[in-house]
Amino acid sequence: MNDLLKFITCGSVDDGKSTLIGHMLYDAKLIFTDQEKALQLDSKVGSRGGEIDYSLLLDGLMAEREQGITIDVAYRYFTTEKRSFIVTDTPGHEEYTRNMAVGAAFADLAVILVDASQGVMLQTKRHARICSLMGIRHFVIAVNKMDLVNYNQERFDKIKKQIRILLAEFECDSVEIIPVSATEGDNITKYSQSMLWYKGRPLLQYLEEVKVKQDTGGSDFILPVQRVSRPDHTFRGFQGQIEGGVIRQGQEICVLPGREEAKVSKILRGDIQVEEAFAGWAVTLCLDREIDISRGCVLCRGELPTVGNLFRAKILWMEDSRLVSGKNYLLKLGTKTIPAVVMRILHKKDENIL
Length: 354
Known about the structure:
The chain is α+β, with helices and mostly antiparallel strands. The protein is built from seven helices and 18 strands. The protein has helices at residues 17-27, 33-44, 62-67, 97-104, 122-133, 153-167, 203-209, and strands spanning 4-11, 74-79, 84-89, 109-115, 138-144, 174-179, 221-224, 227-229, 237-241, 246-248, 252-256, 260-269, 272-274, 276-278, 282-287, 298-301, 328-333, 336-341. The strands form four sheets. Strands 7, 8, 9, 11, 12, 13, 15 and 16 form an eight-stranded antiparallel sheet that branches. A six-stranded mixed sheet has the order 2-3-1-4-5-6, with helices on both faces. Mean pLDDT is 83; it is low at 59-71.
């Protein structure tokens, strides 16, 4: 397989998100020897009575370690024999939900933790809704802390029903519900001997094998220009991340909003010249003729994006002040920031209601 899976971990405060990923990395031997020794030393002065605190592998801020919670978004990169991963560990506390939403925008799959002793909480539904709003269609629900409920199958089945009801209102391509214990390592990288009634796959194995269709933005090439590179008078390149499609050297592109056209004379990925580039790549494109292009312009090929000044959008509003019809706001559109006015609010839903 050996492809890339970007996933996010989320859930309520103290559900064990950092511990889960830390234990996964530790058991799968995906950390360096010096990291393992540092983890063992740090755990001796931690809150687990000298036992290994796997969350320390992800909670790097001093405030996080002191409070025992995740505050900032932490990214970890690791590779197994079957797949490469980028995991985003996000905060569970309500005050840091904004950080969680940022992480969800980056992911293809969400691992949502549910405390087996607590069941589905308001924050669980809030996180599921945010993940769905950000375009995530693949969910893994890790029912954690099964050791605290004596690995009881009836308790797991009850929570499983709650989860099915919760996710019924969202568009999902796949849903997997796995009973785990992040601290004890049950069903993380290997099957649990304490839950022989569970016939599914351990979490890491499932993540290695799940098929996730990544959104490449369709077959039409789109690149919002982030920066114009002019190191000297002999070079002029347009840099950005390809949001959709493929571009090849020699192909003709159109520049919005001016609709001028030019051919791609050179494609650079870093300092390496390539013949073609794909969605998700950060590249520099050089054109065969001079066109007035600046940050915020969009390079396209194929069916051009719709150009207009009025549109509908679903918005996750996280500001303390209310969103007001008729008020002026700044809109981040690709790599450009422009003034905008909210014409009318058609529908709204309070995320604080379960």
